[in-house]
Amino acid sequence: MPDTLTALPRIEEREVADAAALDAMLRGADRPFVLRGLARDWPLVQAGLQSASAARSYIQQHAVERPFVVSVAAPESEGRMFYDEAMQMNFRTTKGTLPTIFAKMEEGEGQEDAPAIYLASIDMHDFFNGLHEANHVPLGGRDPLSSIWIGTKTRIAAHNDFPDNLACCAVGRRRFTLFPPEQFRNLYLGPIDNTPAGRAISMVDFTEPDFDAHPRFRDALEHAQVAELEPGDALFIPSMWWHHVEGLESFNVLVNYWWRDTPRYLGQPQDALNHAIMAIRDLPERDRAIWRDLFDYYVFEADERVTAHIPEQARSVLDRLTPESAGRLRAFLLRTLSR
């Protein structure tokens, strides 16, 4: 870790007795925390403690026979899955069978000039039989998306996610550097429509920060926290917290769970931001001020003034959304956007 990052405060560590205590701890949590050894009893963790080869064999035993999407970056990337000089991805994405991908990983172990190989966010239910059932954290009534991330040494630029996230280090070691949501201005975000994985990422190289090009990154570091996870450790990352992720060993596996406390029928806030850029950002200043006022009224304040004067049965999408009214609004948006 560079000298600029070694002195960062460590993320709070907590202890949890059982699934019920974890459920209570996660409910309403808005700060990150580490749970040491939460997944230490997983068969996958135990296999990884034997060797990387044993972990790969264990995973492969559960794999469905279907193509896996894999990203491969040249050795000169040093594991940083990022942009090239032309602001295109510095890695290529292809498909392959898991045995072939694992053979390439094993072939590169211990070699200085090995490519970076990364399987990102693989759905554990769709691509494996029994892997989730044998290796998972009970999350109460939550219905999370369960994903597995498998790779060589990699560096994933700081980004954020809308859902809450419980990330479990299963094999190898992971380093997470976290920043609160409001630090986005100091992270020098790249494009929102040309991204490695659908979320805007920080353009700062955390290994060699260029403070001349990114002076506000010093301010971001004043608010940063770091955690190094060993096999079996878990990290809770609240919604919208920025996280830079490093796989530190030659073979690393992470299992994570994403969930939302809001109903799934609600839309994605990022879609609203994208549409606002297209429809509002380039308007004259006076018009933008009017729309800012309307957004405050209908979206950010959204108090009783909006609907008190409208008969209850006629409030439609101005009332609290239901699956039915959200569906009508989605259909309306699709019609208007397709014009």
Automatic annotation (TrEMBL):
Domain of life of the source: Bacteria
Domain JmjC: 103-274
Protein name: Cupin
Organism listed in the record: Croceicoccus pelagius
